[in-house]
Amino acid sequence: MKKLALFIAALLFSTFFYDQSIGLNLFLFSILTVVILFINNQSHFKNRKTQIYSVAYLITGLTIFFHSSTLSIIANVVSFFTLIGHLSETKSSIYINWLNGLYTTIAGFFHRNFAISETKSNDDDNAEKEPIDYLHWAKIILIPAVILITFIGLYKEGNPVFSNIIDKIDFSFVNIQWLLVAGLGYYLFNNIYAPIEVEPATELDLNTENNLHKTNAFSVPKLKQENQLGVILISLLNALIVLYLITDIAFITSDFEIKASLFSAQVHSGINALIASIFIAIMILLYVFRGNLNFYQQNQTLKRLAYTWIILNILLVFSITFKNSQYIYYFGLTYKRIGVLVYLILATIGLVTTLLKISAIKNNWYLFRVNTQAAFIILIVSSTINWDYHITDYNFNHAKSMDFKYVLNLSNNNTFILNEQLNSQSLDQDSIEQIKSKYYNYVYQLRNNNWQELQYDNIKLNSK
Amino acid sequence: MAGLIIVAILFGGGFTFVILRISISSMFWFSKKPNDKQYVFKNQFPYYIIVLTTILTAILISSGFAYFAMYYVLGVYCLALLIWNFKLKHCKKTYNNTTHLTEQHQPKLP
Predict the structure, then answer these.
(1) From CA A340, how far away is CA A331, in angstroms rounded?
(2) CA distance A291 to chain B (A)
């Protein structure tokens, strides 16, 4: 049953992917993978987390059908590794899931094969395994084949009816490349059907807890000095950030005319520095609260100062978000500007989890675990959005100005909305020609899509 | 021309084989327990094969998924697994664990 399922999956794999571009096939492959994994790991699928990862994986597959962007493909691949890695060990962290998922996909079959042969050899040390006689097998296959072909040649000469029958046999339908892709599919499904783990890394992860413990090096005088240093450092940094925020608010609320012209330079030079400052802020807090200072009785002031600094850094994030939003409003939406927003969301999560780490006395592994999980969720959510469509829509209908070439050079996901702008916007002749050219090329491409390459745009095109 | 191609393939294949053989052997040389095959397999093989596949994927992408690159990458991957298989199952060679010298039992003896 298992072998048959893998064999069918391999044939379907080749049908989906041989000589095809990405479209509906990746979604179908996602379904097929979940089915194969379900058949072989039914007990794991009762776990809520496994169900969530499976749904996330299917959603990313579906987003490729709706808009096959690079981001959705990356999200699909990452969620594929996450699901497989999670099945190998349901209690491990997400980054270990990625490692296990990658390892299973690459060498699952080889790993199982070697592990089984090792246990067998341990079980019966003295029982010698009978070696395979390759020469005998070669003789069995090759000698009859050669003799058979020779006789077919001889009989063909002797009987015209037999000769006609032999001539009619046509093996041209056998496509070697297609079979190779099917073989690759079989190997892939054979690797993943029973996920395996990188044992040292998984064991280390399972043995590493999230809580921080008091060590033997606990020394009150030393901690008193460390506490003093921390209080002075974070107090000064608090004062500095308060001053910065006051000047920043003054700048933001100042004359609007100056703002528009300055935003470009401000955003480019300023945001990178502020992003770095938030990162360094988290690093400083992690250093200060790295060990026994968490268990020092008189650390209340230091903790309060740290919380204040984190909250002020979150205010700094809001300030950057406001500036970035203004910049987007004046100069249009681009991937870089969206990237800044995504970074700011991640930075906010990082700051909040740092606050939780300090208050609940957690270690750095806790931070790493929670933040990688957050990054994964953001990746999945952002992959569901058709960014090219939204960038084009915003830049044409809401932004004060925009770079037409940038919008035009985006992927085909914005082609239909660009075409709609022909009627509603006042564009010069050259831009109209460029949009029309992109539209017709895309429509031609859609019309030539096979069923495996189908996209949601095919349905939209047919319904027009 | 065909001869040149054959020579180039043999040279390239031989070079790849030597690189793979040395890199896999080095996994045993630098292991804490080079004679414990199960230990090397559990601790070194996963990382080796992940790094190798990453390099091969990079080659494949940079070549624009050319057919030649696909066959080469597939060949290298299979060859690496065959060499690992040989080292783990059939190779009888033992290693002197000289890289991890332990303290002498009687250090004060002449």
Answers:
(1) 15
(2) 30
